[in-house]
Amino acid sequence: KKIYQRVRGAHLGRDTILFTDSKGVALKEYIPESIGQTFKVLYKRGGSIDNTKHIKSLIDTVKDLDHPIILIWLGTCEITQKKNKTIQFRKSPYQNIEETLTQYRDLKQQIITTKPSATVLFIECPYYSITRANKPKDSINLIVNSKKKTYPSLLVNKATKGHRKVQLATNIDKELSEQIDYFNEHLKLINRL
């Protein structure tokens, strides 16, 4: 919604690129045909700001467009990592987030240098649950289908005015939500540059 509000005043015919990680796999099939020619999704499973081939594909695509809108939606793979088939925190999480944000600023500058008419916006990282991601799929289905929901998953209370609050989550998920909040606050500052 926030991204739409920032972009809606722009020309409707502007080429738009959503640069993302595995979230793009599911999103690709939901792009309406009416905008399919101007809205492209560049995704890579496990994609992060460190993936130079993924970044190069974005820069190469931007070169050929007039006044493009670039939506960058990473974050999940920046804050956590997958090791031995489990999702876990990176070492020194806040230091890692700061390094990632520096790379985001550099990427934005690189895009603007390549195509000065480009609009670059970073989309906030969504809340997700490490506990739920690491739970075997069969146990998640059993819990979701049971009448008694005792599974400690991540719930976001949207009733609080202007603030999202995480409830009924494990300690690791609460810690993750705090890191996501920190990350998202800094993304807002980068978008203002």
Describe this entry's structure for a reader:
The chain is of the alpha/beta class and 193 residues long. 45% of the residues lie in helices and 17% in strands. It has helices at 2-7, 23-28, 52-63, 76-79, 93-114, 130-134, 137-145, 171-192, and strands spanning 16-20, 39-43, 69-73, 80-83, 86-89, 119-122, 155-157, 165-167. Helix 3 packs parallel to helix 5 (93-114) and helix 5 runs parallel beside helix 8 (171-192). The two termini are 20 Å apart.
What characteristics describe this protein?
single chain, 193 residues, alpha/beta, four-stranded parallel β-sheet, two-stranded antiparallel sheet, 8 helices
Helix content: 40-55%
**Distance N to C terminus:** 20 Å
Structural class: alpha/beta
Alpha-carbon Rg, integer = 18 Å
* SSE sequence, one letter per element: HEHEHEHEEHEHHEEH
Strands across the major sheet, in which order? 2-1-3-6
Q: Could you name the ranges where pLDDT drops below 50 across 5 or more consecutive residues?
A: 7-11, 139-154
What's the pLDDT, averaged over the residues? 78
Shape: globular
Q: For the report, how would you describe the main beta sheet? A: 4 strands, parallel
Count of individual helical segments: 8
Number of strands: 8
Relative strand content: 15-25%
